[in-house]
Amino acid sequence: MMLRAEFTTEPFEGEGEPPAHALAARDCLLAAGLDPDFGPLGTAITADRERLLPALAEVLDKALAAGASRITLQVTADGDQV
pLDDT per residue over 10-47, tens digit each? Predict the structure, then answer.
């Protein structure tokens, strides 16, 4: 089953470099061999369930450890259809 996940990490820090918690989240996905669409207001990723769910658990852990105070996550099944 394909999944599409979209998430944001907060706090937002305005203009300039992305905050450490956003970079940590992105880097978890890259380390898992995934190709996230990383942007200033959030990250989106489509992958099979077996690869994405463990990567998302790591994203939550690492982003919180890097200073995220809130993570908003939406997961849609059959992400290749969205």
Answer: 998 778 889 999 999 999 999 999 999 998 789 999 99
Tokens of 42: 């959030």
Q: Please state the φ and ψ torsions of residue 27, each to the nearest 5 degrees.
A: -65, -30
User: What amino acid occupies position 42?
Assistant: G
* DSSP symbol at 35: -
Q: What is the DSSP letter of 1?
A: -
In whole angstroms, give the CA distance from residue 76 to residue 73.
10
Report which of 58, 57, 39, 36 is spatially closest to residue 47, judged by C-alpha positions: 36
Statement: residue 66 has pLDDT above 90: yes
**How far is Cα 49 from Cα 47, in angstroms, rounded to an integer?**
6
